[in-house]
C-alpha cells in the first residue's frame, strides 16, 4: 500500500471495517491532490461533490459575511474534512475552507464513492456514524460557546487541542473564540 494511503486505510480499518477487497478498491479510487497555502478548497453556496481526506497540512473552516469571517473548526491531523451535510443531502454548503499550509488531500467524487459503499453494503453505517459524530461535535461547540467564557474556552483548547495552538495563527484562534487578537494575548499571558 502506498504511504499516502496509510492514514485513510487506518481510519477505515478501525472506524468502518470493510473486507480487504472493498478497502483496496476504495483506496484505489481516491486521487492525491496538492494545494498551496491560502487555497480556497470549499466555498459557501456550492454543493460538496467530493469526499476529501486531509492527509497532511492544516485547513481552517469558517463562515463568512460581508463584514467578517468567523472560524468554526481547524483540521490539523489526518481526517475527513468534507461538509457531510452538503455532501449527503446534495445541498449548498454554508461553510468555507482554506488551506493554512501546503496540504495533501485524498479525494473521491461522490458517485463512485456511493457506488462502492453500496457494493460493499457499508454505506448506511458510514454515513450514519459520521453524522452522529458531526452532530455531537456541533452540539458541544454550540454549548461551549454560549455557556463558557473566552478564558475557559482557551483553557479547553490548551488541554484538548494543543496542536491547534501550535499550528494555527493566533488571529485565527481569536476568531474561533470570537474575541479580538488583543484579548487573546491577555488571556494567554494570564494563563501562562
Automatic annotation (TrEMBL):
PROSITE patterns found in the cross-reference section: CNMP_BINDING_3 (PS50042)
Q: Which Gene3D superfamilies match?
A: Jelly Rolls (2.60.120.10)
Record Pfam families: cNMP_binding (PF00027)
Its transmembrane ranges are none
InterPro entries given in the database record: cNMP-bd_dom, cNMP-bd_dom_sf, RmlC-like_jellyroll
Instruction: Specify the Cyclic nucleotide-binding domain's residue ranges.
Output: 18-117
From what superkingdom does this record's organism come? Answer: Bacteria
Q: What is the name of the protein in this document?
A: Crp/Fnr family transcriptional regulator
Organism encoding this protein: Croceitalea vernalis
